[in-house]
Structure formats: structure tokens, C-alpha cells
Specification:
This protein has 203 residues and is mainly alpha-helical. Helix content is 60%, strand content 7%.
């Protein structure tokens, strides 16, 4: 299982983590801009969500890359991976920080408040497209940048993202709430509109 990680070097994986973390930040803010009309810091100090990077590493270590043809078993594995991952992360934040990180109870076919059939299907589809078409390209670039200076930068970047994650969650744990550092109203909606109504503090 984990031997699949040996397909690439430690430094290649560092670059993948950094790139995917930034992609995750952009995806979440794009969704917020489209659905709620604003973007924000996504509870981190840096514009990276390291969970996306580690999720891709975990996905590859367990399942590798999908086949060129429609890979039903790979898709099913991703569906279960996403569903379980959302539940674990959601429950962890709920227990450690005292609030609901997100809430899918208003969606049909939700399983607990942290995952649903439709969201898991959407994430699984996006991930299989990424793993088939984008992942190989990122790794090709990472392998071609075989310079000590680049390697040092990759390691420093991953350490910085890990520290940011730890510090940000420590603050959320201490304050029992989201880490809202900045928010930009993209569509200039009125001030009275709820910023993030699905993230609710536990009474």
C-alpha cells in the first residue's frame, strides 16, 4: 500500500502538497464566491489548505492512479474515502473546538451532518479527474525541478503550512469559533447577510 509513495521522491511529494493546498484554497473560495458572494481566509493565516495536500498523498498511497478507462472501483473507493474523511474531520473539529465546521443536514441524503451522497459524488468526480489529468503533470514538473534550492524551498513551504495549520486550529480550539481574519464581499451583498450560516457554534 504505502510503497506506492516510493514512486516519487520526498521533495516531489512536498511540491504536490503545496500545490494541492493552494488549489484547495482556491476551490473553496471559488465555491463561496459563487454560492454566497464572498471569499475569506478559510480559517488559516496563509492561502493554503494543507488538508487537500495530505488527502491527495493519502489517496495515491492507497489507490494509486485511476486506469485510463472508466475505473468504477477507483471511483467507489474515492466516494468512501471522501465520505469517511469528511466525517472524521468534522467530528474532530466538533469535539476539539466546540463548533460545527460545516453542516449538510439541509441536503438530501446526508449521512450525519458532515457528509452526503451528493457532495461525496461531486468530490469523488473532481478527484478522479485531478488524479488522471493533473497529478501526472504536477509530478512531471516536480521531477524536472531537481535543484537543491528548489528542494529546500519545498520543505520550508510544507513546514510553514503545517505550522499554520497547528496555530490556526489551536486558536479555534481556544476561542471555540472560526478563525476569521479577513473577508471580501465579492458581489457587494448587504452587510446584514449571514457570512457563513452553515458553520454553527455548539451551544
Amino acid at each position: 500500500m504505502l510503497e506506492l509513495l516510493n514512486d516519487y521522491s520526498f521533495y516531489d511529494w512536498c511540491m504536490m502538497i503545496v500545490v494541492c493546498s493552494f488549489i484547495g484554497f482556491m476551490i473553496e473560495n471559488s465555491w463561496l464566491a459563487f454560492t454566497k458572494g464572498y471569499i475569506d481566509n478559510r480559517n488559516m493565516h496563509l492561502p493554503f489548505l494543507i488538508g487537500y495536500g495530505f488527502a491527495v498523498v493519502a489517496c495515491y498511497s492507497v489507490m494509486g492512479l485511476p486506469d485510463d478507462s472508466p475505473d468504477i472501483m477507483y471511483f467507489v473507493g474515492l466516494f468512501l474515502f471522501v465520505s469517511c474523511g469528511e466525517i472524521v474531520l468534522g467530528k474532530f473539529v466538533e469535539l476539539m473546538c466546540g463548533f460545527y465546521y460545516w453542516d449538510y443536514t439541509r441536503l438530501p441524503l446526508h449521512v450525519t451532518r458532515y457528509t452526503s451522497v451528493f457532495t461525496s459524488l461531486g468530490f469523488a468526480t473532481a478527484i478522479i479527474v485531478f488524479m488522471r489529468h493533473v497529478f501526472p503533470w504536477i509530478m512531471y514538473v516536480a521531477e524536472s525541478l531537481d535543484l537543491d534550492s528548489i528542494h529546500n524551498l519545498e520543505v520550508v513551504a510544507v513546514v510553514a503550512l503545517a505550522v499554520d495549520f497547528a496555530v490556526s486550529f489551536a486558536k479555534m480550539h481556544r476561542e471555540h469559533g472560526l478563525l476569521e481574519l479577513w473577508k471580501i464581499d465579492v458581489w457587494h451583498r448587504h452587510e446584514g447577510e449571514n457570512a457563513d450560516e452553515v458553520r454553527t457554534k455548539i451551544a
